[in-house]
Target: Nucleoside diphosphate kinase
Amino acid sequence: MAIERTLSIIKPDATRRNLTGKINAKFEEAGLRIVAQKRIKLSMGQAGKFYEVHKERPFYGELCEFMASEPVVVQVLEGEGAILKNREVMGATNPADAAEGTIRKEYALSVGENSVHGSDAPETAAQEISFFFSGLELVG
Ligand code: DAT
Ligand code: MG
Model:
């Protein structure tokens, strides 16, 4: 499998509880390398644009307000099959369905406050990485 890059976000529920280091350890233990990382506070406009794909869904407003409520850590993870591997390390969207040992099983508070975002396909990974990072900021 090819070396890929994927966009990860450590969400406000996790930054608030000082879980950035524990979550990063999960990525690194899985063989994912953090090749870019920054802590930022999203505006409502930025959160709305990032999650535009979900704009018709009933939870869109709540999702954007949550993502803009407190700082997030945005990062680029690199590795063999990184997109799928990250989704495995994250676990299912709803922590009630997440497998043992996954980030969401261990740390998520609810389906909405679920600690991490990860790109779901090569096209969205490329789009989402360029939403937050310039090429100069990616240091493999
Ligand atoms: P994922 O983050 O696993 O890719 P998604 O793309 O379907 O999941 O949804 C994006 C985010 O929207 C998700 O991480 C949390 C929120 N969300 C999804 N389904 C929800 C629901 N039923 N109620 C509240 N928030 C939800
Ligand atoms: Mg998604």
Summary: Residues 7 and 128 are 6 Å apart (CA to CA). The chain has a mean pLDDT of 97.
